[in-house]
Specification:
Layout (H helix, E strand, L loop, with lengths): L1 H15 L2 E4 L6 E7 L5 E16 L2 E16 L4 H12 L15
Antiparallel strand pairs: 1-3, 2-3, 3-4
């Protein structure tokens, strides 16, 4: 019995000392870069649906993030080219997002 109590005390405090922080999804995003087989490079961003990180002793020990793939934006093109690339990346050629997107490329 004493061993069980000691075990819970020792390892229980490890779990209690961890801090969970929730991601501020309004101020957070992922920046991406994609390169074609040619020399062309594109870049953009994605938004999060949710996320949290668990810290222990100032170090990240665990994290979980859910990304809203439908928020995919290209940030290096404009107009029709931008729309075509975004639809291409959302299509079955890449991420298969719904509704069906036509690549146009």
């Amino acid at each position: 019995m004493l061993k069980s109590i000691l075990f819970l005390f020792c390892f229980g405090t490890l779990f209690l000392s961890a801090q969970k922080t929730t991601l501020n999804i309004d101020n957070s995003s992922i920046k991406w870069t994609g390169k074609q087989i040619t020399t062309k490079t594109h870049y953009g961003s994605l938004k999060f649906k949710s996320g949290n990180v668990i810290f222990k002793n100032g170090l990240i020990i665990e994290g979980k993030f859910i990304v809203d793939m439908t928020s995919l934006l290209d940030e290096d093109l404009q107009g029709n080219y931008k729309e075509k690339l975004e639809n291409h990346l959302k299509s079955d050629d890449f991420f298969s997002l719904k509704p069906p997107y036509t690549s146009g490329l």
